[in-house]
Design goal:
By secondary structure, this protein is an alpha/beta fold. The chain has a single domain (24-242), classed as 3-Layer(aba) Sandwich (Rossmann fold), CATH 3.40.50.1110. Helix content is 51%, strand content 16%. The chain has helices spanning 2-18, 38-41, 56-64, 82-91, 93-100, 111-118, 128-151, 173-188, 202-205, 209-212, 224-242, and strands at residues 28-36, 68-76, 104-108, 156-160, 196-199, 213-214, 219-222. It has a five-stranded parallel sheet. It has a two-stranded antiparallel sheet with strand order 6-7. A hairpin with a 4-residue loop joins strand 6 and strand 7 (219-222).
Length: 243
């Protein structure tokens, strides 16, 4: 009997030596789901072997993998508007089920609405119609965020704001400078909620449009440097949230 207890004790001790209990440093299991428009898809970033590994989703995934085992799913759809994203979330049951399992969800939406909005006002005309479109965008975003939280109350949700892609002297610079901050302002309120991070790239990109986007080719998407700056902001916010 005594020999049996000695053997059991030795087995227990060896199990802790070879298979130590999980600690805070042990890798976690995270499902990261990215939803949104062309920024989520990584448009504007350079390709390697036909993959846009310099977009913010691959780069942020690489960061998460420094301390976690990460499964990533990218649902970026170029040209997607806020109403399109809301319709997708309401209609796609499979996507809803995937979002319920996510530990991290990033959302980039509003850029196409922003473009349609500021381009809808002919020079010198009243901005009433433009303000109305911004109000519709605000309400659609509210519904989208509410749905995401209903699907997953516990995930860390990262909401990406807008920058002004137009440099000084461009015909749309002033409108961009007005309405990108308005959009960022109304998503900022979600940052007061637990596990919701709001990324505002406006100040970071100010004065850098020619360096960090493809605007010289009339393409508002970030280049590799621009995406790197977005990821830097995401990482900083995520790390603060862990503190």
């Amino acid at each position: 009997m005594l020999k049996r207890w000695v053997l059991v004790t030795m087995l227990l001790v060896s199990s802790f030596l070879f298979y130590p209990p999980a600690t805070a440093e042990s890798p976690g299991e995270i499902t990261y789901i990215a939803i949104g428009d062309s920024l989520t898809a990584g448009l504007g970033s350079s390709e390697e072997n036909y993959l846009r590994i310099h977009g913010f989703v691959p780069q942020f995934t690489k960061y998460l993998r420094e301390k976690n085992n990460v499964t990533v799913e990218n649902y970026g759809i170029p040209g997607l508007s806020s109403t399109g994203l809301l319709a997708l979330l309401n209609a796609d049951e499979a996507l809803q089920n995937r979002l319920k399992t996510a530990g991290v969800i990033s959302v980039s939406i509003g850029g196409n609405d922003f473009l349609q909005t500021i381009r809808s006002v002919p020079e010198g005309e009243d901005e009433t119609a433009l303000n109305l479109r911004m109000e519709i965008l605000k309400r659609t975003y509210q519904e989208t965020y509410k749905l995401l939280r209903e699907l997953n109350p516990d995930a860390t949700i990262i909401l990406l704001g807008l920058y002004n892609p137009y440099p000084e002297g461009h015909e749309l610079t002033d409108l961009g400078a007005k309405y990108a901050p308005l959009f960022n302002g109304f998503i900022e309120e979600y940052g007061d909620e637990s596990k919701t991070l709001v990324i505002d790239p406006y100040d970071t990109f100010e004065g850098k449009a020619l360096e960090w986007t493809h605007i010289e080719k009339e393409d508002i998407h970030p280049n590799d440097r621009g995406y790197l700056e977005i990821v830097r902001l995401m990482k900083a916010a995520y790390e603060r949230n862990l503190e």
